Amino acid sequence: MRSVFVGLPGACLALALLAGCAAGPETLRLRQETVSVELSDTPFFAQERYQCGPAALATVLVNSGVPVTPEALVSEVYIPEREGSLQSEMIASARRHGRVPFRLDGHVESVLAELYAGRPVLVFQNLGLNRLPVWHYAVTVGHDADRGEFVMRSGTEPRHIESDKDWLARWDRGGRWTVVVVRPDELPASATAETWLAAVAPFESLGRPETARIAYEAASRRWPGKALVWAALGNVHYALGEQSEAAKAYARAIDIDPSASLVRNNYAQTLAELGCTERAQQELATAEVGANPSQLTLLRSTRADIAALNTSARCPLKP
C-alpha cells in the first residue's frame, strides 16, 4: 500500500482516495464467533495537535518494552509541513528502536488473534469519507463480543469505543493497514514463516544482523520444517562471520529441501571457507543437477572461487 500523510487534532488529514468495502458480513461474524478481550494494561498517551502518529506509535512501543515518549518520536515520524506522519516512517521508527513492525493481512481474524495473544494493534483509519478523508492512527486494545464494540486508545480518549460496523468501515477506508510491534524473539500469532521473514529481512540491509538472527532463530523454533527459515538463518550467520553455525543451518535447509540449489551454493561456499573443500565441491556437483541456466552460472562462479581459495584450515565438521 502506498504511504499517506496524516494530521489534524484528534484525527489526521490528507488528500487521497481509497475504496471502501462492505462490513456487514464481518460485523455479523464478529458478534457470533468471537470472545471478548481487553488489554487494560496497554499504556495511553494523549494525542497532541496533529500528532496521532507519535502517540499511537509510542503506545505500541512502550507496550513492547521500549521506554519512549511521543515527544521523542516526533522528530522520527512527524512531518510538520504535512502536519502528519507517513506509514513508512512509522515502520522505520519501530525498526530503529529494535522492534519488528509486522503488517497484518487485512483480515479481522488476524486483528483478534493478536489481541487474544496480548498484543495491541496499531490501526490506520479514515474517519471521514472516501472523497473527503480524515486520516487517523489509533491503537485497538480490545473487542467486546457481547456489545459488538472495539476498544481503542485514540486521540485524547484512553478508552474510546467504536461499534464493529464503524470500526470495520473506518478500517476499510484506511486501506486495512494494521501493524503489531514485537520484539525480534516474539512471533505474532498471525504470522506465517514467509510473512515473518519478510518483516525481518530489512534489518539485514539496515546493518542490524544481530536483530535478524534473533528473529530467524525464533522462526526456526516455530517452523522447524521450513527450509527457507533455515536458509535465512544460515545467511545471517554467514554475514556475522559465524561460518560453522551458517553451515549447520544450510545443512538443515537442504535436508528439508534437497532441490534448493542456491542454498547448496551458499553451503558450498561456507564449507570451503571452513576448509571442507572436497565436501564443498560435492555440494556444487549435486546442485548443478537440474539447476536452471542462471543458477548454473552462479554455481560455476562459486566453483571457480573455491578453486582459487587458499585455506589451510582443517574441516571442523563431521563427515
UniProtKB/TrEMBL annotation:
Coiled-coil ranges from the UniProt annotation: none
Entries under NCBIfam families matching the protein: C39_PA2778_fam (NF033920)
Sequence ranges assigned to domain Peptidase C39-like in this UniProt record: 41-150
Keyword terms of this UniProt record: Signal, TPR repeat
Domain of life: Bacteria
First and last residues of every TPR repeat: 227-260
Pfam families documented for this protein: Peptidase_C39_2 (PF13529), TPR_16 (PF13432)
Protein known as: PA2778 family cysteine peptidase
Signal sequence residues: 1-22
InterPro entries cross-referenced by the UniProt entry: Peptidase_C39-like, TPR-like_helical_dom_sf, TPR_rpt
